[in-house]
Structure formats: C-alpha cells, structure tokens
Fold NAD(P)-dependent oxidoreductase.
Amino acid sequence: MTPRPLAGRTLLMSGGSRGIGLAIGVAAGRLGANVALLAKTDTPDPRLPGTVHTAAAEIEAAGGRALAVVGDVRDEADVQRAVDETVARFGGIDFCVNNASALAPLKTAELPVKRFDLMQQIQLRGTFLLTRAALPHLYRSPHAHILSLSPPVNLAPHWMGRHPAYTMAKYGMTLLTLGWAAEFAEAGIAANALWPRTLIATAAVKNLLGGDDSMQRARAPEIMADAAMAILQRPPRDCTGHTFIDEDVLRAEGLTDFSRYGGGPDVLLDLYVDP
C-alpha cells in the first residue's frame, strides 16, 4: 500500500489549474491530502490547458480529496470564501501554498502599466491575502506550513536590471514569506520559499520564455512537486525561513539522478539562478 503521510492534512493553494501548481496538488493528493484550489479558470481556454475543475478531478484520481473554488486571488471576498469553503469541507487548513503568479519579464519601457499592476496584485496582494485569510486556521494546525513559489533574492546586477518589475513582484513574495517565518516562529508556523533550479515545462514557459525549444530543455513540473512534498513533511519548527531550490531539497532527500524529470544534458537554468 502506498504511504499516505499527508492523510488528514489540508492544503489550500492559489492557482493550480495547470503547471507546477497542478503537479503539487496531484502529489499532495497522492500522499493523502485534501487539496483546495482557488483559481480563475472555470471554463477551457484555447490558449491554456486545464481548468480548476479538471485539476480537482486529477487530484481525486491520484487519491486525494479536492475542492475547486472559482475566484480571483486578488479579491479579498473571493479569498475569504475559498478559506471558508475549505474549512467547511475539510475542517481546517494545514498548508497555504502561494502558487499564483503573472509572468511578464519585460524591460521597463516595454511593460504596459496594466501588466505591471497585474503582477504586483497577484504576486504581492494575492500572496498576502491568501496567507492572511488562512492564518487563523494555520495557528490551530499542529503541522502548519506556508510555502511560496518564489526565488532567492539574488541582487546581482544582471538579474536586477533584466526585468525589474517582474523581479520586484517575485522577490516581494519571498520577502513576505521570510517575514512570516520570523513573525510566526513562536507559533510554530513554518514559512519557506521554493524555486526551480531549471526552467520548468509549463504553458507559461512555452508561451513567453522560448517556445518549443525551451520546453525540450526544461524539466517536468513534478520536480517542484516532489520538492514541495519533502518540505511540507518536515517539522515546521525545524524547517522555516529558507529560500529553497528544488534540486537542493531533493538532494537532501537522497536523490542524485534527476533524469526522471527530463530536460536533457543541456537543461536551461531558471531566472535568478546562476551557474
């Protein structure tokens, strides 16, 4: 029988209709977790695979229990509704995963103000709203984790100058998360960030970061999911305040061969990761 170390635990995540978020949800379901998704994609979009409903079905097929909540992580009422429905369905919240992001890695003069606002609102406001709304339930959990999918704060000029607005939004997620690690340390609520060492084969990468060539040199989303599951199983008081890289997490778990995740020998490094 497959071990189910997350049985009885509940994970609430922003996004998750596809890509890394979906992989995390499926992995959590496979380990026995209840998974609630707050996402906007209610009906199929010809440009993007999956909806919040198809994601919930995949989680349940993997062995978990799922709740699909259609809503916008930028909207306080939608976020509170997602939290309330999650608690009503599953009885609490143990894991808050800040996955939703908008991607627009453009130079300052090229970036429309509307896209600037969208990135700050999803990455910063959305991460704050979801975590804040889940907080009363995280306090009650004996195994509470906040996990944000955001990078280590790399201040090297070649990263700072490449696309400052997107960088600010992603680094802002990390700074919030590190702040929560300090703020909630006495309560035993862990807060960590997780980022991939390499590009991950998602629709966003295909559409915005190099097309089919990049997809062939990117790893599968499951590497981030496996790293997330490893982090969420660690004791919260012993694992907080870190900016993790997926490969490092899995090496610490004893994994040395990453070929299962694809990408080939010339796999591309992700943003903010130096050789």
User: Anything to note?
Assistant: The CA atoms of residues 231 and 239 lie 8 Å apart. The first strand starts at residue 10 and ends at 14. The domain at 10-261 is CATH 3.40.50.720 (Rossmann fold). The chain has one domain: 10-261.
